[in-house]
Design a protein that fits this description.
With 260 residues, the protein is an alpha/beta fold. The chain has a single domain, classed as 3-Layer(aba) Sandwich (Rossmann fold), CATH 3.40.50. Helix content is 42%, strand content 17%. The chain is built from ten helices and seven strands. It has a seven-stranded mixed β-sheet with strand order 3-2-1-4-5-7-6, with helices on both faces. Helix 6 packs across helix 8 and helix 9 packs antiparallel against helix 10. The longest helix has 17 residues. The N terminus is likely disordered.
Amino acid sequence: MLTNDAIMHADELDPKAGERAYYAKIGSEGLAHAGSKPFSDGRCGLYLADMGAILEMIGPPPCTILDLGCGTGWTSRLLARRGHSVTGIDIAPEAIATAREVAEAEEVSTVEFIVSDYETAAIEAKYDYVLFYDSLHHAEDEHAALRVAFKALKPGGAILAFEPGHGHSREARSRQAVEKFGVHERDMPPRKIASTGKAIGFQRVLFLPLPHDITRSLYRRDYCTIRSRIRLMLERIWGYYRVLGRLGTQRRGGLTIMWK
């Protein structure tokens, strides 16, 4: 596991005020909501679909996992409760303080949290996996973030990047976040991640649709309100078509896996 001495902070070089202050600005209610994710959030089922996919893809515990841009640490804690050894890093002090408090309250012992900028962190330990869960698109420089991830991986290790695709930066919610909090909300499609990763030195790349997109395309609460057998069959068929439509991940958001 990392120690605080193993992390170099870049606060003096680049304040990144919006990202650093985000959790302070959302207030105590927002921070409590973030700290209780995924169960406090309306997207809970979709978040758990993603985490289930991660647990199926990685090796059996104990693996070592570096969670970059972990926020309040719910992804780190979930992976640690499965038996993995996890280090979560985030630039926001309030987020990491909440992550530590919740981990202590839940008695999760195989996780640690460190305040640092994931674009400049000097990480001495080597990990089996590096996770970017909805976080790489907040980077100011994805090249720097992916270089940190590459250096932190063991030979043969992999990163898993769950990121939005083209058009994300233009969505209303993204624009509002930029205006209100000054954070980065960038497009981060799989092809962009892959081209950057290959230039850094990653050897193999795999694109997959986001697991939660498959879940909401096929497993729908609408089924419960349908009384007609014919309509129910048609809705199931449309569900299969929706899944097929999600398989093209070059432009839309997706899961990018790259091996060192």
